[in-house]
Amino acid sequence: MIVFNELQQKIVVKVTMNTEKKSRKALKIAVSLFGVESASFVGSDKDQIAVTGEGIDSVELTTLLRKGVGYTELVSVGPVEEKKAEAKESKATVVEVNPYQYYYYGTPYYVYGM
Fold first, then answer.
1. What is residue 99's predicted lDDT score, i.e. its pLDDT?
2. Cα distance between residue 75 and residue 42, in whole Å
3. Are the C-beta atoms of 52 and 38 separated by less than 8 Å?
């Protein structure tokens, strides 16, 4: 019986990616797992993949990346850090529109008295 942890977790995996093709393949493998909500490249050299979601099997992720891409190292597994919501005041942009400004193209039409 497999019991998944229902909390959001973040898994960081270091992958050796020499080409752009391998990096796309690694990201595709990471996103294909059950429970993954997002995956992105992190680190100074963009050689790490951060995967967030619920109930992700880190061993399965590492094994699939090793089979598909190459050398893979599990860096960290932990809960997602909550970001504090700061109250930001957004300035409303006011744009004045003149509804009586018309553009007329072509020759003017004059009506002379009858």
1. 62
2. 12
3. yes
